[in-house]
Amino acid sequence: MDYDVVVIGGGLAGLQTTRLLAMRGLKVLCLDQNLIGEVIAVTGLFVQEAFEELPFPRHLFGDDISRFTIHAPGGNTLTVEHPHYRFSVADMPAVLDWMAREARHAGAEIRERHRLMDLKLTDSGVELLVQYPGGEPFTLETRFVLGADGPRSVVAASLGLPRYRRFLHGVEELRAADVREGEGIHWYFGRKLAPGYLAWVIPAAGGYQVGVAGHQRSGWSPARALDGLIDRITDEYGLGALVFRRGGVIPSRGPRPVLVKQRVMLVGDAAGLVSPLTAGGIHYVLQHARRAAYLVCRYLETDDPKLFRRPLPPELRRRLILKQAVRTVYETFSYDWMVNLGMTIVPAVLKTRFVRRAFYGSSRYVIRTWKPIQEEESRDPGDETGRVPGE
Ligand SMILES: Cc1cc2nc3c(=O)[nH]c(=O)nc-3n(C[C@H](O)[C@H](O)[C@H](O)COP(=O)(O)OP(=O)(O)OC[C@H]3O[C@@H](n4cnc5c(N)ncnc54)[C@H](O)[C@@H]3O)c2cc1C
């Protein structure tokens, strides 16, 4: 056998599993068809919990973001802020480069520009057919394969697993701009703009990341929708020159039904590990990578296939099922008039004394949570920040 584990894909899922397996002393190879960080599809919006999975260096991220604004199709907006919760926008090539260095430091081998063409299950492991540009295809043998090769997984296809069919299609641009002080995230809703999902404007280094994602349907294209949005908001955000445009697909139906076949396991987007509600995958992908590394390591020690009965952490599975149910409700009822109505009612209701008490607590006990704010409201924290008095 050439390796204990070969990981296909050097994205977040692949590099995290590679590092964790190498740290356990296994002989690990990670293959990616591109240079690491060369082709990026992800916006790079990290939720706070992602930092519990891996202590990413803070300098690879922009300023913390603690407020977001929802824009209804009719133009109503609702801005909320959290006293403690933070989003962070990553410099994704730098993050992946750092993860690759950490994996190599742990003892793993990473081969870039190596593409998996096919794989075959054998009695003792897996045989891989691999190619690099200009080279002849060659084979590798390994005891186990982790397919971290993204939403259109070649590993899953080679195993004959049913094709994942329900994707969100997303495209985004970085536009140069002077980012406004204390700027938050903006989410735009509307069936015409982003059917089944949303559009976003996110402050980033040197400008704003503006993107759109939705379900492909006749008459809608993400590229056209993005062009329309940019035309609409250019003056408002002072958008300038195009820095880059990128895009990709996001699995939107939750995990695949089968994640493991003999000595092959899918992880990350290849496994459909994206929140069906928010379409955010980074935190789940990292969580799943930890679980996958643990299971593979134990399996190689024990040869016990029963370990793979629960390839997802149970609490993650429950959360994904719940989010899937909420998404189904949203897709069924997300008519623009309903979103507009909701956006008229919710801010008014949230301002009433009764609801404020129920949600944000009395003066003696304050729950730290998202709080609606007026755009013109002072950013001075005061006692409206949700801090417990005397803290
Ligand atoms: C436009 C867009 C924006 C997004 N924004 C966010 C966000 O802001 N926050 C968030 O939480 N989630 C976001 N997501 C979801 C997020 O991208 C993913 O959940 C996460 O990045 C997936 O990581 P991954 O490693 O599983 O897959 P990927 O990042 O897709 O990595 C797969 C890797 O496998 C390699 N590969 C593929 N096939 C082969 C092959 N045959 N041989 C060798 N290598 C191969 C690819 O080159 C790639 O490097 C976004 C998705 C899209 C499409």
Strand content: 25-35%
Which structural class matches the secondary elements?
alpha/beta
Number of strands: 18
Give me the number of helical elements: 9
CATH class of the largest domain: Alpha Beta
Oligomer: single chain
Q: What is the overall pLDDT average?
A: 87
Key descriptive features of the protein:
391 residues; alpha/beta; FAD/NAD(P)-binding domain; D-Amino Acid Oxidase, Chain A, domain 2; 8-stranded mixed beta sheet; 9 helices; globular; binds flavin-adenine dinucleotide
Can you tell me about this structure?
Strands 1, 2, 7, 8, 9, 10, 16 and 17 form an eight-stranded mixed sheet that branches. Strands 15-11-14-13-12-4-5-18 form an eight-stranded mixed sheet, with helices on both faces. The chain has helices at residues 12-23, 50-53, 92-105, 154-158, 222-237, 282-302, 314-333, 336-351, 353-360, and strands at 3-8, 28-31, 45-47, 67-71, 77-81, 87-89, 109-111, 115-121, 126-131, 138-147, 167-176, 185-188, 199-204, 207-214, 242-251, 260-261, 264-266, 371-373. A hairpin with a 5-residue loop joins strand 4 and strand 5. The protein is built from nine helices and 18 strands. The protein is globular. The chain is of the alpha/beta class and 391 residues long. Flavin-adenine dinucleotide is lined by residues 8-14, 31-34, 39, 41-45, 115-116, 148-150, 154, 170, 172, 247-250, 268-269, 274, 280-282, 285.
